[in-house]
Design goal:
Layout (H helix, E strand, L loop, with lengths): L11 H12 L4 E7 L11 E6 L2
Antiparallel strand pairs: 1-2
Organism: Duganella zoogloeoides
Protein name: VOC family protein
InterPro entries: Glyas_Bleomycin-R_OHBP_Dase (IPR029068)
């Protein structure tokens, strides 16, 4: 079981589209946009994928 996985990418829109398609059969979708400015200094922006059930 995985809880958190962080993957750095160069094209966020393309990556979200890819992972939405690849993970859809598992019931996993893009559910969160996190602005790194809301966290501690230097925190990256994050996109969250999660099971919808």
């Amino acid at each position: 079981m995985l809880d958190h996985v962080f993957i750095s990418v160069s094209d966020i829109a393309r990556s979200i589209a890819f992972y939405e398609t690849a993970l859809a059969p598992l019931g996993i979708a893009h559910v969160l946009d996190y602005d790194g400015k809301l966290g501690p200094a230097g925190h990256p922006d994050l996109q969250g994928m999660a099971a919808l059930t």
